[in-house]
Amino acid sequence: MTENRIKAHPILIDDSVADIPFYWQDQTFLAKEGEMISSALMANGITIFGHHPKDHSPQGIFCANGQCSQCMVIADSLPVKACMTPVKSGMQVFPAEGLPKLPDVPPLNGISTPPTPKYHVDVLIIGGGPAGLSAAIELGQVGVSTILIDDKSHLGGKLVLQTHRFFGSSEAVFAGTRGIDIAKKLESTVRQHASVEIWESSTAVGVFEDKSIGVFKNSEVYVLVYPKMLLIATGAREKSLAFLGNTLPGIYGAGAFQTLVNRDLVRPCENLFIIGGGNVGLIAGYHAIQAGIHVSGLVEAAPECGGYKVHKDKLIRSGVPVFTSHTVIEALGKDHVEKVVIARVDKEFRTIPGTEKQYDCDTVLIAVGLDPVNEFTRQAELVGLPVFSAGDAKEIAEASAAIFSGKISGREIAGFLRKLSGEIPAEWASIEEILKSRPGEIFEPNLPDLEEGVFPIMHCTQEIPCDPCSTVCPRHLIHVDPADIRHLPEVDYYAEKGCIACGRCVAVCPGLAVTLVDYRKNNQNPLVTLPFEQDPLSIAVGDEIELTSTEGMSLGKATIKTIKKIKGYANGTSLLTVEVPREIAKLVSGLRLIETTEPTPFEYETEHPENLADEAYICRCERVTAGEIRALIRSGVRDINQIKAVTKASMGACGGKTCLNMIKRLYLAEGIPLSEVTETPVRPVFIEMPVKVLANLPNEGDRR
Question: Does the pLDDT at position 704 exceed 50?
Answer without folding.
Answer: no
